[in-house]
Design goal:
Blueprint lengths: L3 H15 L4 H7 L4 E10 L5 E12 L5 E8 L4 H17 L6 E7 L7 H15 L8 E5 L5 H15 L23 H14 L9 E5 L3 H12 L3 E7 L2 E4 L6 H11 L9 E3 L1 H4 L6 E4 L18 E3 L8 H9 L4 E2 L1 H4 L2 H14 L6 H26 L3 H16 L5
Helix pairs in contact: 1-3, 1-14, 3-14, 4-5, 6-7, 6-12, 6-13, 13-14
């Protein structure tokens, strides 16, 4: 299994080959400013005590408070969280929002917890991390397997400990607790705005066929948005497997099917497909929206998509990047493609600090303007340096972080 943090540093090295940066800056950018590991004791419903491990990696705050989600997953570990925190620092810089990069997690399978146990573990994470959190220090958000409800518990716990009443320390909250309009769909919608800006440069046709790996919050919203705008989603999947329907999937009907049956399999008119085979389907646009390390040196040569939009974090390994670049398959990198979520999270933080509440229309207009503008900046950099979009996005982000850290380039 690829170490995600080693992948992140390989991506940094790839960018450095295209444009040189000061050695001292690269050394600082390769190491997180702080790593926090805590134990979270939880009395389970049956009375026994379990102790879980929690993490927070604060990577870089040169451009603003640390910002990044908290994931609950049985495979979460410090290497993964460190990589995600690194990518968050770059992501905030590439879309030019006033945030740094952080990430958190708990090694746990939340599907095995009752709601009471889930609340206990969430509040326990806040108690263990309270000293390093705050609206001007570190602002967490939801990530894999964490929800607005969990953010609500965390806000409440942090207020008890700190007395903070702004509610700006956590984003992705329910609307009634200070959440932002438009946050749920922001990552998928942001990805669509980035795609629409860049597709004209790569001749992606109207009505293009789309394959989405991942039918969770991000992939599901992306499917709805692409379908609504005239694109044909022909395949999608969740952790159990996927389906293909060449004449197009009705996303709303599929969501209802999954809710009723607990699976995508058996959806009328479709055939089943594995997650691995799904990545190799012939299509115009492939959207990895699940977990990291999905396209690797082993399968990259079999990818038949004409254009890839990374809505997951780190779905393509550095070795696979080289293969796809040689095949002339444009890859819109995660740090740009999925930055809609953190952008609207930053809007939520700004609304909380100024006691405002913006309409969904205002939020989406601001989101569209930022992502379209910065997508053009990344594309222009790629053209001028004759490189791929990942390296150009890294370079744009690194230039901004270096400048904030006082380096002269």
């Amino acid at each position: 299994m690829n170490n995600p943090f080693e992948n992140a540093l390989s991506q940094l090295a790839r960018a450095q080959k295209v444009q040189a940066f000061p050695e001292q800056f690269l050394k600082q950018l390769s190491v997180p400013m702080r790593e926090v590991r805590i134990s979270i004791p939880v009395v389970m419903d049956d009375g026994r005590l379990e102790v879980y491990e929690g993490y927070r990696v604060q990577f870089n705050n040169a451009r603003g408070p640390y910002k990044g989600g908290i994931r609950y997953h049985q495979n979460a570990d410090i290497h993964e969280v460190k990589a995600l925190a690194f990518w968050m620092a770059l992501k905030c810089a590439v879309v030019n929002i006033p945030m740094g990069g952080g990430k958190g997690g708990i090694t746990v399978d939340p599907k095995k917890l009752s709601k009471t146990e889930l609340e206990k573990i969430s509040r326990g994470w806040v108690r263990g991390m309270a000293d390093v959190l705050g609206p001007k220090k570190d602002v967490p958000a939801p990530d894999v397997n964490t929800t607005p409800e969990i953010m609500g518990w965390m806000v409440d716990e942090f207020a008890k400990i700190s007395g903070d009443t702004t509610r700006a320390t956590f984003t992705g909250k329910p609307i009634e607790l200070g959440g932002s309009e438009g946050r749920g769909a922001a990552t998928g919608l942001g990805g669509y705005y980035v795609f629409e800006t860049l597709r004209e440069f790569y001749s992606v046709p109207n009505g293009a066929t789309v394959v989405i790996q991942g039918f969770g919050n991000v992939g599901g919203h992306a499917g709805e948005i692409f379908s609504k705008n005239g694109y044909k989603v022909i395949a999608t999947s969740d952790s159990k497997g996927g389906i293909v329907k060449e004449d197009g999937i009705d996303i709303g009907a599929l969501e209802a099917w999954k809710k009723e049956h607990g699976t995508l399999s058996g959806f009328p008119g479709s055939r089943d497909i594995s997650n691995e085979a799904l990545l190799e389907l012939l299509c115009d646009v492939l959207i990895p929206a699940a977990l990291e390390n999905q396209i690797t040196a082993e399968n990259a040569d079999r990818v038949q998509a004409k254009f890839i939009l990374e809505l997951a974090n780190g779905p393509i390994t550095p070795e696979a990047d080289e293969i796809l670049f040689a095949k002339h398959i444009p890859v819109v990198p995660d740090i740009l493609a999925n930055a809609g979520g953190v952008t609207v999270s930053t809007f939520e933080w700004q609304q909380n600090l100024s006691s405002e509440h913006w309409s969904e229309e205002d939020v989406n207009t601001k989101l569209k303007n930022i992502l379209m503008r910065e997508s053009r900046v990344v594309h222009e950099k790629a053209v001028s340096l004759k490189t791929d979009l990942r390296r150009s996005a890294f370079i744009v982000a690194m230039e901004r972080i270096a400048s904030a850290m006082g380096y002269t380039l």
